[in-house]
Amino acid sequence: MYEDIALGFAAAVHLFLCPFTKVEESFNMQAMHDLIYHRSNLSQYDHLEFPGVVPRSFLGPIAVSFVSSPFVALLGVLRVNKFVSQYVVRIVLTSFVLIALRKFRLSVERSFGRGVSLWFVAIASSQFHFIYYMSRPLPNIFGLIPSLVASHYWMEQKHLRFVAASGVAVIVFRSELLVFLGLMVLIELQSRRLSITALMKYSLPVAGAILGLTVLVDSLFWRRIVWPEGEVFWFNVFLNKSSEWGVSFLL
After folding, report:
1. What is the pTM of this model?
2. What percent of the chain has pLDDT over 90?
3. Cα 60 to the chain's mean position, in Å?
4. Which end of the chain has the least Cβ crowding within 10 Å, N or C?
């Protein structure tokens, strides 16, 4: 418990010292704003006027906004400055990460002992990058949450749940995670803890359900048939247009 408090305290310090928004998180932050304040009035949503280079999924912002909305509504009743709602969504996102991180930490402790778990917490809580970005609604952070949960289920040998969490991470948020999580699958296959038949039985219906969900929900918000992460993967890998995100010039 003390380990989780330490991680939460470190994340809270970074959040309250720097609550402002970086340009790379602008889509998801604006999406959460629109979900909370505009709700079903999609014509007012910012992404329709400023879509960005590629579409992003609304599933992450929907989850955070759903939990945040009651607190934001209370702030509105109390006539608190609207900027405080940004703290609320960041706190909720951080809580999601911390819950997933706790599951992973407990698996580390059960597998390698309390000493390793303590060192894990000490290293994680003292690293600026990880702790700072916990509260930043980037696709990477939304992908981090199911990745941590998937790693937890992998270590616990709960293969169906591992496949489901991995599917959310890869299909919805970050397709590149297929390399990381796919290696875990190969380890399970090589060690014969998981058979190819069982993998197919788990992965095909789970992948179909997750893909169907993201296409259904995101097509509604983007007003066209779209699989956002699939389009991102095609744009970056096959079309090789990642430079359109912007480049850093040599000084």
Report:
1. 0.91
2. 78
3. 6
4. C
